[in-house]
Amino acid sequence: MFQVTEDSTKQSDAEPMVDDAQATVNEEQQADFAAAEHDVDAAELAREDISFDEDGVPETARDPRDAQIEELTQQLLRTRADFDNFRRRTRQEREELTQFATKKLLGDLLPVIDNFDRAMAALDQVDEPQLKTGIEMVHRQLQQLLGQYGVEAMAAEGATFDPALHEAVMQESAEGTEPGVVLQVLQKGYTIHGKVLRPAMVKVSV
User: Fold this and answer.
1) pLDDT in tens, 143-160
2) Helical (H) or strand (E) element with 19
3) Which end of the chain is less congested by CB atoms within 10 angstroms, N or C?
């Protein structure tokens, strides 16, 4: 009859414990290996220092020609904006120069208009119908020319004195008239497109 000794029994009981311990050691080694491998991958990614664009695409995946195209596009847009600004500034300067030249020319014509106004006032004392007709025609043409450029005579007499429109060269007390009223226009004032071309020289009540 086969007899099991005490040593063989102990050995049989110890074998499952050894196997469990070995399995535990293997699992721990595999976990340590996976963690180490993960740390290595993270370190490699950090060393690569991958950057992403605004669309979330890695810079290394972009075609270098795309950056060149984008740079050239930006240069083209800036050049176009500069040209538009230059064209607008040139047009504005040309308009201002034209307005200045026109305003100066019209201002130089005003003394001629003044002399025609004086001639028109003196025609009542002259018995020369043809002369009178000729002067009236020239005077009318000058008035029409001024009107084409937006020049108009001010209606100053009887108005309240305004230093922006009138130049007071005389003062006089007038019964029944409040102070600061234009009593007489000594020289006509003119506006061009609503702006003062020449202020009116007036006599003002005090």
Assistant:
1) 999 999 999 999 999 999
2) helix 6-48
3) N
Among 97, 101, 103, 112, which Cα is nearest to 198's?
Answer: 103
pLDDT at position 188 over 80? yes
Six-digit token pair at 98? Answer: 């034209």
Give the Cα separation of 52 and 143 in Å (integer).
Answer: 74
CA dist 26 and 125 (Å) reads 135
Residue ranges in 49-159 assigned as alpha helix (H): 64-122, 129-148
CA angle 114, 119, 125 (to 5 degrees): 150
Average pLDDT for 175-180: 90
Identify the pLDDT of residue 192.
Answer: 92
Q: Are strands 182-187 and 195-198 parallel, antiparallel or unpaired?
A: unpaired
pTM over 0.85: no
Residue 5, pLDDT score: 46
The enclosing H or E element of 183 equals: strand 182-187
In 123-187, where does DSSP find H-type helix? 129-148
Q: Which position has the token pair 């014509």?
A: 109
